[in-house]
């Protein structure tokens, strides 16, 4: 891990995230809403995190019940893979080189499986993620390789690359 990455983790007070990378919640709205399925309870209107992904790791396939907006800040572009509920695969590059087709912001639709890795030479990417209704770990599901592969056999190689269990 480079000194720059260590400094970002320290300065932003980041902690390891279960999907890979590092994070810290930076905002949780005070307002709440009581929701039915799939939430089964009260959620804050919105939450935000810093998310740091390093070049020696990846964000494993996971899904949540909410839309999640990614906002690029600095470092390498991120290759974001999604497998939507209908089985289609989509790859988006999140970064600041808009003229090369990168998007500085992208929203992952609720219920889609998604995973990410950095691409480039910086060794890290710093992004923000905004979730609405607000994120709760009760809404988070980390993919199990065998189960996801059985459901989406066409994407077995991608699923193997972006799962740990």
Topology readout:
Layout: H1 3-11, E1 15-16, E2 22-28, E3 32-35, E4 41-44, E5 47-54, E6 59-63, E7 67-75, E8 78-83, E9 89-94, E10 105-108, E11 113-118, E12 124-132, E13 141-142, H2 145-151, H3 156-161
Antiparallel strand pairs: 1-2, 2-5, 3-4, 5-12, 6-11, 6-13, 7-10, 7-12, 8-9, 8-11
Feature tags:
165 residues, mainly beta, 13% helix, 44% strand
Describe the protein's architecture and organization.
This protein is mainly beta and 165 residues long. The protein has 3 helices and 13 strands. The protein has a 6-stranded antiparallel β-sheet with strand order 1-2-5-12-7-10. Strands 9-8-11-6-13 form a 5-stranded antiparallel β-sheet, with no helix packed on it. The longest helix is centred in the first third of the chain and has 9 residues, at 3-11. The two termini are 24 Å apart. The model has no long low-confidence stretch (mean pLDDT 95).
Short description:
The protein has 165 residues and is mainly beta. The protein has helices at 3-11, 145-151, 156-161; strands at 15-16, 22-28, 32-35, 41-44, 47-54, 59-63, 67-75, 78-83, 89-94, 105-108, 113-118, 124-132, 141-142.
